[in-house]
Every structure is written in C-alpha cells, then in structure tokens.
Design goal:
Elements (H helix, E strand, L loop, with lengths): L1 H21 L15 H20 L2 H28 L3 H10 L18 H26 L8
Helix pairs in contact: 1-2, 1-5, 2-3, 3-5
Length: 152
C-alpha cells in the first residue's frame, strides 16, 4: 500500500514541480522571464524519475536514498523560506524574492523583511512532505519484509 502511495505522491510532486518551473501560470508563479535554474530543474526531474522507477521496482537502497534526498529538499525549503520568514530575510534573499516571488499569490502576511513563502511554494512543500512520508513508509515497510529466497 505505501509503495503505491509513494509512487502517486512522487509523480504528483514531479508533475507539479516541472509545471511551475517551466509554465508561466502568473500570478501563481512568475517565470515570465525564465526561472534561472533550467539545468537544475532537468536534473531534479531525472533524479525523481529514477526514484519513481526504483519505488515501482521496490529497489530498497535507492528508495532509502530517495527518502534522504526528499528530506534534504524539505530542509532546503525550510531553510530558504521558513527561517527567513521567522528571522527576517537577508538582503540577498530580499533581492531574489523581489525578482521572482513578490508578485505571486501569498497566503501569509509579510512584515518588514519577514517575507512569506508564496502559495506556489506552500503547495510544493506540502507535496515534498507527502513524497517524503510515503517514500519513507514504503522503504521501511520493505526493509521489514524479508526478501524471498532465490531458488537454486
């Protein structure tokens, strides 16, 4: 069951990520002038496809690696968006925010240099959490299940 949910959540995350990075849905996102990270987006897509394939094939080691990568990605989201929102954004982040995120849809209020994640990234973060939780659960459930012996 967890494997199926993991595949669904990873596919949802991949589709959403590639959509918001490549398709202008302004004011949901603002990629009218490009997103500045095309090669990174392609690399992330390839890694995610490998993770989805490994999950479908139940390759435990790669699934564990995917869990670690989703954890790291979630940490990057927390570090980029939430720590800046709680503590206040650096001047560098304020410039990036102004260029790419200031005109997008926001749910949370801004206060001074406390710049909230836009709605587009809130959804992305929720999808990352879903992919992380379901992939971790699928991985743990496979590690607990003994592998069948190979008949020789």
């Amino acid at each position: 069951m967890w494997t199926r949910w993991s595949i669904v959540s990873q596919i949802g995350l991949l589709v959403y990520l590639e959509l918001i990075e490549w398709v202008n849905l302004f004011p949901w996102n603002d990629v009218r002038g490009g997103n500045g990270q095309g090669k990174l987006d392609i690399a992330i897509g390839i890694v995610m496809l490998a993770a989805i394939w490994a999950t479908a094939r139940r390759v435990r080691f790669v699934m564990a690696l995917a869990t670690m990568l989703y954890s790291f990605w979630l940490w990057l989201q927390i570090d980029s968006w939430w720590i800046s929102y709680v503590r206040g954004a650096s001047p560098e982040w304020q410039r990036v925010y102004e260029r790419y995120f200031s005109k997008t849809v926001h749910i949370l209020p801004a206060a001074g240099n406390r710049l909230p994640p836009d709605a587009c990234h809130l959804v992305l973060q929720i999808l990352i959490v879903l992919a992380l939780v379901t992939t971790a659960a699928a991985t743990f459930s496979l590690w607990r299940t003994p592998r069948p012996a190979i008949a020789g």
